Amino acid sequence: MRRIAILTVAAFCIVLGLLTVWTPIPTGVPLLAVGIFLLLTVSPRAKKALRRLRTRVPRIDRGIEWVEARAHRSMAVTLKRTRPFRPKPKLVPASASDPNRPAG
Asked: Does the pLDDT of residue 100 top 80, yes or no?
């Protein structure tokens, strides 16, 4: 029941945000952001879609990382769960990286 209520509120915010994006009163973008955030809290599909988008569009990824750093803890945790999977670089010792280099 709770999930359905959150999905309903998220859909309402997204639709209302899309309708008011072009009005002179700046309510469209915040409503879209709230709707998308609510959707992320209850939908694994939305998280996967945002993760794919963040992987493909680095500018969006940087923007969301900027929001993560400034957001409330609960919102930051939700957004961090959508970070793209990036392999960690392997650290190689300097002596092991060049076999022809003399030790010392």
From this structure: no
